Task: structure prediction
Amino acid sequence: MDHARDEYPNECYGVLVGNPMNKIVFEVNRIYNLENDRTVDRYSFNPQELKLIQHTAKIQSLDILGFYHSHPDRGDKPSEYDREAAYPGYSYIIISINKEKKISAKSWSFSSEKEPFKEDEITVRKQKT
Result:
């Protein structure tokens, strides 16, 4: 949520790493948004950043569970662009934030290309060190 506040009025983007067996997130990784022209409603990222996060997760016996991004001054439901950019089997947390920095967030997922997004549940906690 802090990431969305920090980046407002632009979209933020990040990766959720955790235990795939119980969908508990232990790491929230911010990703730099490469989208320069439409930062208020688009995101893109360096694939090498994602590969590094995936590699680090594997070393810790964790996996990428999903992704998050913000919708500045828009709702917390997936857009058509979100659908086009999404992969089945992952959770997608969408954080709605407005100019007063009020936030709402929902997690979404889908299991096949033809299926609509469904609200899902994912737990985020700090990993014990």
Notes: The two ends are 23 Å apart (CA to CA). The chain has three helices and seven strands.
